[in-house]
Specification:
Layout: E1 6-9, H1 16-26, E2 34-36, E3 39-42, H2 48-63, E4 69-70, E5 75-78, E6 84-88, E7 92-95, H3 101-109, E8 114-115, E9 119-125, H4 130-134, H5 136-143, E10 148-153, E11 158-166, E12 176-184, E13 188-189, E14 198-199
Parallel strand pairs: 5-8, 9-10
Antiparallel strand pairs: 1-3, 2-3, 4-7, 5-6, 7-9, 10-11, 11-12, 13-14
Length: 206
Amino acid sequence: MSAEPIMEPVMTHVDPIDLMIAIEEASPMPIRPEYVEGTVIAPAQPNDTHNDGAFKLAVQFFNAGFELAGMGNGYRAAHKDGSTMALLIPDFYVRRRPASELDESYRKVHKGWYPADMIALVGEVTSTNHWADTGPKLRTYAAAGIPVYVLINRDIGTAHCYADPVLPGDDPAEAYYSADTKVDLGGPLPLPAPYPALDTTPFLSD
């Protein structure tokens, strides 16, 4: 990938969802911006190895019986006061439940974003935005209480399973996962029960 992600701080009086819509409409090319820790991130388009590997991880979950594994949906995490904390489009995920009527109503109200509490496991595959996946997104997923975060860090050739999210106070930027299982890419990545160990060999061609 030759392009760098675009990052813009967000004015506090602007609804991040409306700002994202404006950015998408103004872009001369298709983009899928995200909002994390007060900043809009418009990642550069991922390459084929990224997309192929993320798809194969989602398929591994599906083949292991997790029929709610998927890709593509956008999710909104909220602060305790109900305001938007983050807007994220994970590379893959396993949902807790199929979208209910209430979830679809939430998505309509929030202009295309499902509630983050639908997610039981979330995954990201790094590209040029590896700093976001290993920092702001990690903290945000932990702050949202998502139990398991799988990270394929192509920048350093490792795969991680983060578990047991902790939010020590009211600041989402202080959230973290207390458990981190790490393997080199190519090895099986153990996950907490009931999930299968993940085959990470699709990323060895990087």
